[in-house]
């Protein structure tokens, strides 16, 4: 582990990195099994203690009996001696029944087992992996991005970070720039040595231009992580029993929402990723099934309905595009607002004339919340009404096309195959571009000559570029940047 014994975690809390840390690594709630992770110097001694003197074992998975203050417990234990573990430290994981109360008692017992044992802070396992050299900073950011990913595009971007794709490119640029810089500085420090040949300005300028081109290519073709994380919300809104949940299941091609004939069964906004085709590729949006508008004032006073309407209000206010659902057998269709598409649902209940597009349109706005939200959008209304039947799977492609057209008109494009960059990465790459441009500007005047006239200026700019590129992989990165990155983690990761 790097020469660090403390680290400023969240809320200026000082983490003693020589402590043994313990945390639950599985999601909160009941499950068949929960995983409790323990890591640090002396972690395997803690395991021996709760196994009542079991002899130290090598790497592997073992059936065991654990002894706690509340009694005995059969469990599986995974032993991972350092340095070949996630954190680089001695570590073990307990697989125990996933009862939240039982899990909490186990963690409490372990945390009290020794004075140097404590609960882990958010992201502390990955912090230790970084400090041990097991992960680069880019890979750590990939772990955080994987945890928070909601769409396939975000998962792909997180995988790029975990694989170190950008870091590998930066490392190759670092090597090339470092080689050139060494030859520049050779011309400064060893001018009196006949056998030392400094780099020629022409060769240096060619190398700097190549590095500059590669950096600009990355910056020009990248997708902002913030753009992926801010996937557009496409919200299904409308009255209760308008077929919103059935339509959501049909669009997703899986049974995700509960569908019944009883009105008001959706009590909370259900959010699922949905991939649609757009010009030049595809885009991922978040499809939201919101609670229906009841319209009955007395009924609205019931607590559950109040909560449902609050969820509906939040979903509609957050919406990029509203699919206002109206059952085909429920009378006249409302008029679409600027950011709305009217979706006639349950068209299988009516005759062929409705399916052919013969319908009445009125100014009747059944959902006042959607109506208010609809007037504030910048989206153009590309398609007024789309007829669908979730039962017969008709109109779904037409609806997806209408959504694509509406989102495209607002400037929302496909996620493409470009490299996803976090704001920190873009800033470092942009700073490196400026540094290399400055080095090139200082060298280009001498391109036709044998020697650089201002090698110190060139070397200074190149040093700055190396520092910025090194920051992508975590080199020369100040603690305040580390603190902001690791604060995004949840406990146990």
What's the CATH class label of the largest domain? Answer: Alpha Beta
Radius of gyration: 30 Å
Decide which structural class fits the backbone. Answer: alpha/beta
Give the terminus-to-terminus CA distance. Answer: 18 Å
CATH superfamily label of the largest domain: P-loop containing nucleotide triphosphate hydrolases
Number of domains: 3
Helix fraction?
Answer: 40-55%
Explained architecture:
- With 493 residues, the chain is an alpha/beta fold.
- It has 3 domains: 127 residues, Gyrase A, domain 2 (2-Layer Sandwich), CATH 3.30.1360.120; 133 residues, tRNA modification GTPase MnmE domain 2 (Four Helix Bundle (Hemerythrin (Met), subunit A), Up-down Bundle), CATH 1.20.120.430; 177 residues, P-loop containing nucleotide triphosphate hydrolases (Rossmann fold), CATH 3.40.50.
- It has 17 helices and 16 strands.
- The strands form 4 sheets. It has a 6-stranded mixed β-sheet with strand order 5-6-7-4-3-8, covered by helices on one side. A 6-stranded mixed β-sheet has the order 11-12-10-13-14-15, sandwiched between helices.
- It is flat.
- About 10% of the residues have low confidence.
